[in-house]
Design brief:
disordered N terminus; alpha/beta; 2 domains; 7-stranded mixed sheet; Rossmann fold; 4-stranded parallel sheet
Length: 362
């Protein structure tokens, strides 16, 4: 609603305030109504091959800053509608950052208490945003069997037992997660391109986004090849566990949503691949993308010779503004990934990528 702030000299001549949004779609009814309808942008400079049509779904345009806004809203509002939670409930979830922000926003809007379990890989800025939205932060400092996700989930179980009225949305098993992308993300892309999508590239962790998009495309009878982008060091799709520094990509244990899931192709990227993709997007397209998005873009760059004449869509989950102290910090890249600034720039500029890229056809 537009508000008029009166002053003594002009108030008498002003018309009474009206609801300018009442009969139009121009205004969102609250911040959660602004989730979705994110831009689809054509990138013309990222790839070396001009005959690959590359479009990206910029999920950072959601009010909470990532694709996780969609399932966060779907999970909480579904639980409210079904009577599983009420104003006395405490929401508890494990998150590497973006889902935590999405849930903090939704819970604050609905007046719910939110408790988020994070680990040392969570970006400091993401944790600060959660706190600003009223979330209570619980940090685990030691992995369990070498895996921080296992440690976070153990802590979630402890909080569920300890906190009165605690409720776990469980993004890793809740079908409202892929449903949010089935109903939103991919429908928006499909409608914008009139179903003419040859390839869809999606980063995977819980697999909620990839699963929801794949199911919609199959339901509509589209022939789109869905490519799941996973991390080197992730156990998804039969991978081998290893050390990872980029949050929101891959998993140290197979989430329930990911079990027995198959996609047309699985490609794996290293942490350094993700950094290269982020830096290249900034240099060539003037867009700051997050770590997993960099990995998705590098996956497409590796395959560009095979994609000539094709329409390719990449879902970019979040913004690089949350990775300024990691992905976009030369010192962090040197210390964590053992790559100098000069070597990094060489990789960003070269027409081919680093040798860590691998792929599996399913």
């Amino acid at each position: 609603m537009l508000q008029t702030y009166e002053t003594p000299s002009v108030s008498a001549s002003l018309p009474p305030p009206t609801d300018a949004c009442a009969s139009t779609d121009a205004c969102a009814e609250g911040i959660l109504d602004a989730i979705g309808k994110t831009p689809l942008i054509r990138l013309r400079h990222y790839l070396d091959h001009p005959q690959v049509d590359l479009l990206v779904k910029l999920e950072a345009a959601n009010p909470g800053g990532s694709a996780k806004d969609r399932p966060a809203r779907q999970m909480i509002e579904q639980a409210l509608q079904r009577g599983r939670i009420d104003q006395s409930s405490t929401i508890v979830e494990s998150s590497s950052g973006n889902m935590g922000i999405g849930l903090a926003q939704v819970c604050r809007y609905h007046g719910l208490r939110f408790h988020c379990v994070v680990d040392p890989n969570a970006q400091a800025q993401n944790v600060a945003i959660m706190r600003a939205l009223g979330a209570e932060i619980d940090r685990v400092d030691q992995p369990v069997n070498g895996d921080f996700l296992t440690a976070r989930l153990q802590r979630v179980q402890h909080l569920l037992d300890a906190l009165p009225g605690a409720y776990w949305p469980n993004q890793y098993a809740n079908k409202a997660n892929p449903r949010s992308h089935f109903l939103g993300t991919i429908q928006e892309i499909d409608a914008a391109l009139d179903g003419q999508i040859d390839y869809l590239f999606v980063a995977t962790s819980s697999t909620g986004t990839a699963r929801g998009c794949r199911d919609y495309l199959r339901r509509r009878g589209r022939h789109t090849r869905v490519v799941a982008v996973d991390a080197v060091g992730s156990v998804l799709f039969g991978g081998t566990a290893g050390r990872r520094f980029i949050p929101g990509l891959g998993a140290g244990r197979v989430p329930h949503l990911a079990r027995n899931q198959h996609f047309d192709q699985v490609c794996r990227v290293s942490d350094l691949d993700c950094v290269v993709g982020c830096r290249r997007a900034a240099q060539r397209e003037a867009v700051l993308v997050g770590g997993s998005a960099g990995g998705v873009l590098e996956t497409i760059r590796r395959q560009q010779d095979e994609l000539v004449g094709k329409t390719c869509v990449a879902i970019l989950h979040d913004s690089g503004t949350r990775y300024l102290e990691t992905v976009f910090d030369d010192q962090w890249v040197q210390q964590r990934l053992d790559c100098s600034a000069a070597e990094l720039q060489r990789r960003v500029a070269e027409p081919t990528g680093s040798p860590s890229f691998a792929e599996d056809n399913q």
